[in-house]
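Lab notebook page, bench 4
Experiment: in silico fold of construct C2
Operator: M.H.
Input chain length: 202 residues
Purpose: comparison with the prior construct
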Amino acid sequence: MENLVDFFTVAEKLECEYRIIRMSDDALQSVASHSWNMAMMAIAVQPYLKNDVDMAKVLKMCVLHDLPEAISHDIPLHQQSDDCLTNKKMQEACAISKIEGMLNNSDVSSCFEEYEKRMSSESKLVKALDRLDTTVQYLCAKDLSYICKYNDNFYWKLFFSEDFAKSFDFEPVLRKLFEEIKNRVTFRLKNELNIDADSFKG
């Protein structure tokens, strides 16, 4: 029981770990909120999926995929240099080992490993939902101007890149959802900030 209680106190920290993403009330998005949103998306898109997936595995992966950040902390994408990524992977591996020890459940590390390898339909879907949630927050954010502040519009250039769009292609419904979100974000940028989205395309 002691290990389980220890795990509960670690998992709670995911609610206190914040991303740079802002929400509709202008608050920062917690990592726990991000994971919850992904689970909601998975449930919503399931009837439209082309590929068969184990939904129980998808939901488990949505909930667990960022859990190591409760220990190792989130690092914004624009700060992830090669050295930083190497260190991040080492820290996350230690965090996964610690979490697995608390739970006495090897399925947890298997879940993380499957997510990182992106070989299964489930892991590909979860990664796509990970990206899609960010785009939804771009649509919902109270003020979009904050995204312009990072590394010469790093995030807008990524959002409007074809490579980013292609990451949704393995599931047609996800590509359609992304395109709808992108159109709405484009409209907001023009009407609220007088920014032409074409300026971000390489």
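Observations: The first strand starts at residue 18 and ends at 22. The mean pLDDT is 93.
Next step: discuss at group meeting.
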